[in-house]
Structures are given as C-alpha cells and as structure tokens.
Write a structure and sequence with these properties.
The protein has eight helices and no strands. With 186 residues, it is mainly α. The chain has two domains: 51 residues, no CATH class; 111 residues. The radius of gyration is 26 Å and the shape is rod-shaped.
C-alpha cells in the first residue's frame, strides 16, 4: 500500500469526524511519510510500519469519543464511547458490553423502583376511584411510606448513577489504553 492509498483509506475510515479533525490527522500521517522518505524508506515500508489504516481510525475514533465523554459525560456520549471502544476489537464486545449492560440494568432497576414507589399513593387513589369498596387506609398509609422511601431511593440513584457513569468512563479509558498497546510501566 502506497502513501496515497493509505491516506485515502484512513480518510474514509475517519468519516465520522469533522473535516477539520480529519484534515489534521491526515496532515500528521503525511508528515510520517515525509520523515520516513527522508530516512530512505519506501512508501510501502512506511505504510506497513504504521499498521492498518482501519485499525488506526478505530483507535482515533475511540480516543475522540473518550475525550468527548471526559468533557461532558452525557448518556449519548457514553453510548458512543462504548461502541467506539467495542469497535477496537471483538474481544472488547465481551469485556466492555457485558459490564455496560449490567451497570445500565442496575441503574435502570434502581430508578424504576424509586419512581414506582414515589407514584404509589397515586396508584392507590386511582384504585380507590375505580374500586371504592376495596379502599383501606392501611393501603394509603403504606403507599405514603413507600413514596418517602422512593424519594430516598431516587436521591441515592442520582448519586449512584453519577458514580457508575464516571467509574465506567474510567474503565473505558483503561480498556482503550490496554488495547492500544498494553499497560506501560514508567
């Protein structure tokens, strides 16, 4: 693969990035080729030493999405970062997607429980309107107690969700470093 083929393939693989970011990356790789040619290497040798343009693009996209998550950890940014990290290799499908689904399931279950407990008095009142003969004050007081418990659960889930998302972002960063070249000890 020569310089033109390499850069064209890299540019095509980076189509999800903005044109300015792509242009900057392409310029960096053009410099790699220029330095390599000055050292007497052929374009094919330089391209082979750089590696696969598709793999380079996957790593750059993963790094790009991780930077966006670090800047603003929104749900969309976290999902994009997860998919970008999974794209680094098939092994990551199991290593990243499994814990992500588990953590998302725990967070969803916690929020669903808190919200269900909070709205329980409304459900008891709706039940009393539909079936007035089944109304009992015990049900109403129990649902009010559950509503208070639901507020505590929702507050706890707010902090737990923040902690889970920041912890998972750190896990993604660790995984990206590991895939890119192993853990280097300084």
């Amino acid at each position: 693969m020569n310089k033109e083929q390499f850069l064209k393939s890299l540019d095509k693989s980076l189509k999800r990035l903005s044109s300015d970011e792509r242009r900057e990356i392409i310029q960096d790789f053009e410099e790699h080729f220029a330095f390599g040619l000055e050292e007497g290497k052929t374009e094919e040798e330089i391209a082979a030493s750089l590696g696969s343009p598709n793999q380079i693009a996957k790593e750059l996209l993963a790094s790009h999405h991780m930077e966006k998550v670090e800047a603003t950890a929104s749900t969309g940014n976290i999902f994009r970062a997860v998919w970008a990290v999974i794209g680094l290799g098939f092994f990551n499908l199991v290593i990243v997607l499994g814990p992500f689904i588990a953590l998302a399931g725990v967070a969803f279950a916690g929020w669903a429980t808190g919200i269900a407990f909070i709205v329980s008095p409304l459900l008891v009142l709706v039940n009393a309107v539909i079936y007035p003969e089944t109304f009992a004050l015990f049900d109403l007081f129990l649902s009010i107690m559950l509503s208070g418990l639901g507020l505590f659960i929702a507050i706890g889930m707010f902090f737990a969700t923040r902690g889970l998302s920041s912890g998972f972002v750190r896990y993604l960063q660790f995984n990206v470093k590991l895939v890119k070249g192993g853990m280097k000890h300084d």
